[in-house]
Design goal:
heterodimer, A: alpha+beta, OB fold (Dihydrolipoamide Acetyltransferase, E2P), four-stranded antiparallel beta sheet, 3 helices, 18% helix, elongated, B: Rossmann fold, Dna Ligase, domain 1, D-amino Acid Aminotransferase, Chain A, domain 1, 3 domains, eight-stranded antiparallel beta sheet, five-stranded parallel beta sheet, 22 strands, globular
Chain lengths: 161, 445
């Protein structure tokens, strides 16, 4: 969400004397809160609605090698905003290829259909196929082969057709 | 000792286990659902892993997701807390298959004691009296009606796999029995995925007294005295205390010994609780076993000075109890009040929403186990417990005075809580005299 948009919301809150405002737009959720004596609302949270926020930095590092962290940077966030996310439907170990020596299911710029398998997540020795769910082009792979992922963690950014 | 464990629970008990881990120098990983994403206690753990959406079936009750989280976080053991999967023997078996230690008893003793019908048989073998009732699951309402006729009304219907008051109904005549049977069946099957019910005589004006037990792998089985949990509303405990007022030394000794006999007969290892009903004539009957840590465990910790959660970890890691029965003394008097986000004026409807004001009590003799703070949002998906207020003093009279002033200090808002009701209970003549039974709250309020 752009800064101008947030400013606009802030003005709207002031004008209508709102103390709290929550806006969900696609996968972005923004919560603005304003104390009784404050003129400027403070941003409490601005997180993509489906992002898995590990509470601990150590895990975040281990969980997300390729850096879904970077989405928090405003410039990239705006860029990523255009794209849809494929998120982990379960907690487990992610594999980008069907076997250690095989080609990965998808790469950057791969075209995918809704039913295209993009990765597998191993949970309790069961390999669970994760399907794209969206027709489009893979723009970014956010996780490394063999990394641990938690529920709701973004795995791929995809540009829908 | 383990170097790293996973906590498969939420809220105050997750925090309680995190605290035990910290003091033992054990790393802990806590799992959470999306509804608990912003809970502060998550930041106190070494790692926190999101395992699913708010619905417990998709998160805290979902075995594959929890095991998968344990596997990716490389833990040696899982602590289940209470509720959720704590008494699920199938989960314990899966942990065993996956070579993850379960911090609790073996699945065999859990099966045996968790099934109320089998537990009754075990009690009879161990020469511990049981309340007259069905010796197996009741097949249908006709069978229930026949049996009720034989043992005499009122009767209580319980879920064979039950706990926490769910799937429980009292019936005073055949018509109410038939209605209650159906609703108990539905509730039991949704809460425990097991619709088996059994029936026993409902003892009126009885007290609920339970005995805490700790047992290690060598068979050293000790009791940590009793807790009186007679103050209940719809089978949900509200105020608990130890020692139980009005229990003679002989009855107390007999009761505690009976619990140890039952634990030994079940081959029980780790912390567990044996519940008894005490009738008007101080005769006690075994009612059920809880094969987990209980909500009200802090009062036992206060009077014995023994950290039960730490011992759960130690025993699961293979350590032996270095205690003998005579080392365990019941010193002073402890009371716990459960602070629930419920509206007593609106039939105790659970209140969800944001807690804006939270001013906890403190001072000499006060302990508060709570995961709540100003700005905490109570999710409608889970139970309404927001804290356990515990006091410990030399005498019961001092403990009551301490609890009354602690409740006075405690401010929570805008959500409604049970603080006011607890204060009324603590000042009630019957409570002060120690003369209450399991029906007291419902009769009085």
């Amino acid at each position: 969400m752009e800064l101008d948009k947030i400013k606009e919301l802030v003005e709207m809150m002031k004008a209508n004397d709102l103390s709290e405002l929550e806006v969900v737009n696609g996968q972005t959720r923004i919560v603005l809160k304003r104390g009784p004596n404050q003129t400027a609302p403070q941003v409490i949270a601005m997180t993509p609605a489906l992002t898995a926020n590990g509470a601990n930095p150590a895990l975040r590092e281990r969980l997300a090698a390729a850096g879904p962290e970077s989405k928090d940077l405003p410039a990239e966030a705006a860029e990523d905003e255009k794209w849809a996310r494929i998120v982990a439907p379960i907690v487990g170990t992610l594999y980008t290829a069907p076997s250690p020596n095989a080609e990965p299911f998808v790469e950057t710029d791969s075209k995918v259909e809704e039913e295209t398998v993009v990765c597998i997540i191993e949970a309790m020795k069961v390999m669970n196929e994760v399907k794209s769910g969206v027709r489009g082009t893979i723009k970014k792979i956010l996780v490394e082969n063999g990394s641990a992922v938690e529920y709701g963690q973004p795995l791929f950014l995809i540009e829908p057709d | 000792m383990f170097s790293r464990i996973l906590i498969a629970n939420r809220g105050e008990i997750a925090l309680r286990i995190i605290r035990a881990c910290r003091e033992l120098g054990v790393q802990c990983v806590v799992v959470y659902s999306e509804a608990d994403r912003h809970a502060h206690y998550l930041s106190l753990a070494d790692e926190a892993i999101c395992i699913g959406p708010a619905d417990p079936a998709e998160s805290y009750l979902n075995i594959p997701r929890i095991i998968s989280a344990a596997e990716i976080s490389n833990v040696e053991a899982i602590h289940p807390g209470y509720g959720f999967l704590a008494e699920n023997a199938h989960f314990v078996e899966i942990c065993r298959d996956c070579k993850i230690n379960f911090i609790g008893p073996a699945p065999e003793s859990m099966h045996l004691l968790g099934d109320k019908v089998q537990a009754r048989k075990l009690a009879e073998k161990s020469k511990v009296a049981v309340v007259p009732g069905s010796d197996k699951a009741v097949a249908n309402e006709d069978e229930a009606a026949q049996l009720a006729e034989k043992i005499g009304y009122p009767v209580i219907i319980k879920a064979a796999a039950g706990g926490g008051g769910r799937g429980m109904r009292i019936a005073h005549n055949e018509m109410s029995l038939r209605v209650a049977f159906h609703s108990a069946e539905t509730e039991a099957s949704s809460a425990f995925k097991n619709a088996d019910l059994y029936l026993e005589k409902y003892l009126e004006q009885s007290r609920h007294v339970e005995v805490q037990v700790l047992a290690d792998h060598t068979g050293n089985t000790l009791h940590l005295w009793e807790r009186d949990c007679s103050l209940q509303r719809r089978h949900q405990k509200l105020v608990e205390e130890t020692p139980s007022p009005g229990l003679s030394t002989e009855v107390r000794q007999e009761l505690c010994k009976a619990a140890v006999r039952l634990a030994k007969a079940a081959g029980y290892i780790n912390a567990g609780t044996f519940e008894f009903l005490l009738d008007k004539n101080n005769k006690f009957y075994f009612s059920e076993a809880n094969t987990r840590i209980q909500v009200e465990h802090p009062i036992t910790e206060m009077v014995t000075g023994i950290d039960l959660v730490q011992w759960q970890l130690r025993i699961a890691a293979g350590e032996n109890l270095k205690l003998r029965q005579k080392d365990i003394r019941q010193q002073g008097s402890a009371i716990e009040c459960r602070i629930n986000a419920e509206d007593p004026a609106n039939d105790f409807a659970p209140c969800s929403g944001c807690i804006d004001r939270f001013i906890p009590p403190g001072g000499f003799g006060v302990r508060l186990d709570s995961h709540v703070y100003p700005g905490y949002r109570i999710s409608p998906h889970y139970d309404s417990l927001i804290g356990k207020l515990v006091v410990h003093k030399k005498t019961r009279a001092e403990a009551i005075a301490c609890m009354k002033r602690a409740l006075q200090e405690f401010e929570v808002g805008p959500v409604k809580t049970t603080i006011g009701l607890c204060r009324e209970i603590l000042t009630h003549r019957q409570f002060v005299k120690g003369k209450v039974d399991t029906g007291f709250i419902e009769r009085t309020w």
